């Protein structure tokens, strides 16, 4: 099958540091290539792939010293795609709704995986206008806000089976990985650490839009709890950071569409303590691979019960349900359905 994967340009594929969407695109692309498919990746020029790479810009946008207009380069990418669109059996978009007016007017089969939140009011207006676009959700929870659109499947993210090493021994600190923002709930993680008296290590990026929140709200909390702020880390550092943790705290305060770090932690054997929001109940087996909580008090209580969780069961849960191979097979089934009915 000849497949085009169309990635956002904000991060390299795979990202050098933070970046869930582009990381998943990388795992999917490489697995499809390994299975014998001809895959062309539309992404930034610093991306790494065994497939064919077509790049509208030399370097991913976020880490460039001189800021560029992202709209310009995404338009160029779509132009490059449409110039050779006859080369592909199917186009797989990962760039939200930006391409909808264009892909709605071509005969080539396509689908769009939505990687973000769908609870914003304006999105309902947009998706009513484009209600025939074939869409894929990354959790059942994500699609609940727009149940009437043209969903053609739900595909959970997956990671390569050998990407993370298994750490059988429990660690001695709590881990938080992600970005500093109100919806990610790092303030909850800090309070859990403060009340439980267990060290918390935070590996997170701070976007420009969240710098004031970080400075005014989060930084003062560091003085009240046993917190070590590490900053943004990449995939190489993440294995040890997660594997040596006692538990991953995932205290989200929004309808999380998936939460890749949860399966990354469990792949290392590390249990997850996550808020009952968005996809968390779909990813974590409550009482088996971690705990699903509703409050800070719940979190403190469940930390004391982490020893009941089998780290091997955490690892097996990922190998059984969240591998790149399983993700690719699910997408191939959708491609086939769209192409042949």
Q: Helices, strands, pairings?
A:
Layout: E1 2-6, H1 20-34, E2 38-42, E3 52-54, H2 70-83, E4 90-93, H3 100-103, E5 109-113, H4 121-129, E6 135-137, H5 140-143, E7 151-154, E8 174-179, H6 186-196, E9 200-205, H7 211-218, E10 227-229, H8 235-243, E11 247-250, H9 260-267, E12 272-275, H10 280-283, E13 290-293, H11 296-303, H12 311-321, H13 324-340
Helix pairs in contact: 1-13, 6-11, 9-12
Which features would summarize this protein structure in a list?
36% helix, 2 domains, 341 residues, Rossmann fold, 13 helices, 16% strand, 13 strands, seven-stranded parallel sheet, six-stranded parallel sheet, Glyco_trans_4-like_N, alpha/beta
């Amino acid at each position: 099958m000849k497949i085009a994967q169309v990635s956002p340009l904000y991060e390299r594929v795979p990202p050098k540091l933070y970046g869930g969407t582009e990381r998943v695109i990388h795992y999917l692309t490489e697995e499809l290539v390994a299975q014998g498919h001809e895959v062309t990746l539309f992404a930034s020029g610093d991306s790494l792939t065994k497939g064919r790479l077509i790049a509208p810009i030399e370097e991913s946008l976020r880490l460039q010293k001189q800021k560029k207009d992202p709209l310009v380069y995404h338009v160029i990418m779509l132009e490059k795609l449409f110039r050779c669109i006859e080369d592909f059996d199917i186009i797989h978009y990962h760039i939200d709704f930006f391409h909808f007016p264009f892909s709605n007017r071509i005969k080539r089969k396509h689908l769009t995986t939505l990687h973000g939140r769908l609870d914003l009011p304006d999105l309902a207006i947009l998706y009513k206008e484009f209600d025939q676009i074939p869409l894929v959700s990354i959790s059942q929870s994500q699609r609940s806000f727009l149940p009437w659109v043209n969903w053609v499947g739900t595909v959970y993210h997956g990671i390569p089976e050998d990407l993370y090493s298994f750490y059988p021994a429990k660690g001695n600190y709590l881990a938080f990985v992600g970005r500093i923002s109100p919806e990610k709930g790092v303030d909850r993680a800090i309070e859990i650490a403060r009340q439980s008296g267990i060290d918390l290590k935070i590996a997170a990026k701070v976007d420009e839009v969240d710098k004031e929140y970080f400075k005014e709200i989060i930084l003062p909390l560091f003085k009240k709890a046993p917190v070590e702020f590490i900053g943004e880390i990449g995939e190489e550092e993440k294995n040890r950071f997660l594997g040596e943790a006692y538990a991953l705290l995932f205290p989200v305060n929004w309808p999380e569409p998936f939460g890749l770090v949860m399966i990354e932690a469990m792949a290392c054997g590390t249990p997850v303590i996550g808020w009952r929001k968005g996809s968390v109940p779909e990813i974590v087996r409550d009482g088996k691979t971690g705990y699903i909580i509703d409050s800070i008090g719940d979190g403190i209580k469940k930390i004391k019960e982490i020893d009941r969780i089998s780290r091997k069961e955490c690892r097996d849960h990922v190998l059984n349900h969240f591998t790149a191979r399983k993700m690719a097979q699910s997408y191939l089934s959708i491609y086939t359905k769209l192409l042949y009915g």
